[in-house]
Specification:
The chain is of the alpha/beta class. The protein has one domain: Rossmann fold (3-Layer(aba) Sandwich), CATH 3.40.50.2300. About 40% of the residues lie in helices and about 15% in strands. It has 6 helices and 6 strands, in the order E-H-E-H-E-H-E-H-E-H-E-H. The protein has a 6-stranded mixed sheet, sandwiched between helices. Helix 3 packs parallel to helix 4. The longest helix is centred in the last third of the chain and has 19 residues. The protein starts with 5 loop residues before the first strand and ends in a 20-residue tail after the last helix.
């Protein structure tokens, strides 16, 4: 049974936009342990986040291909695709999605071999689950300040194509 779901605490994103408030951040939670996945999801939803879930790294990768997220929270030790492998796939695809690795045992050697993974935080389960909410708030707040809407280029700012040779 797949536990993938899309839930938004506090109403739909379109309703939030209509009221003039910012839509909830979207978070993908990936964990093969259903109890950890459900607890994490409920905690994040109660804090107002829109949460999707995946039961392993392969299902998460599919979700990442078809949805836009503000944060990835992933376990490491999972069947099919591990948490570190999932983050590697993100970086190879040039996806800049912030990631939190939350696992029962940290793959320290593997993380040291791949410093370019740019994992924002690592938390040990089960104790780290309680620290997760603070980390999520901190990471999303930092990324909100870095995001600027990108306007399409205007015809006035385009260089003249007459002098270009192909």
């Amino acid at each position: 049974m797949s536990d993938n779901r899309s839930t938004n605490a506090g109403g739909s994103a379109s309703a939030l936009v209509r009221r003039g408030t910012k839509a909830a951040h979207r978070i993908l939670v990936v964990d093969d342990d259903i109890s950890i996945r459900r607890f994490t999801t409920e905690m994040l939803m109660r804090s107002g986040y829109h949460v999707d879930t995946a039961e392993d790294g392969a299902a998460a990768w599919e979700s990442l291909q078809s949805n836009s997220y503000d944060l990835l929270v992933t376990d490491h030790n999972m069947p099919k695709v591990s948490g570190v492998e999932l983050v590697k796939k993100l970086r190879v695809a040039r996806m800049t999605l912030p990631a939190i690795l939350m696992s029962g045992s940290m793959p320290t050697e593997e993380l040291n071999r791949h410093p370019g993974l740019q994992i924002e935080a690592t938390l040990l389960k089960p104790d780290g689950v309680l620290e997760l909410l603070g980390m999520v708030k901190e990471i999303l707040h930092a990324n909100d300040g870095a995001r600027e809407p990108i306007a399409p280029p205007s015809s006035q700012s385009q260089p003249a194509a007459a002098g270009l040779q192909l």
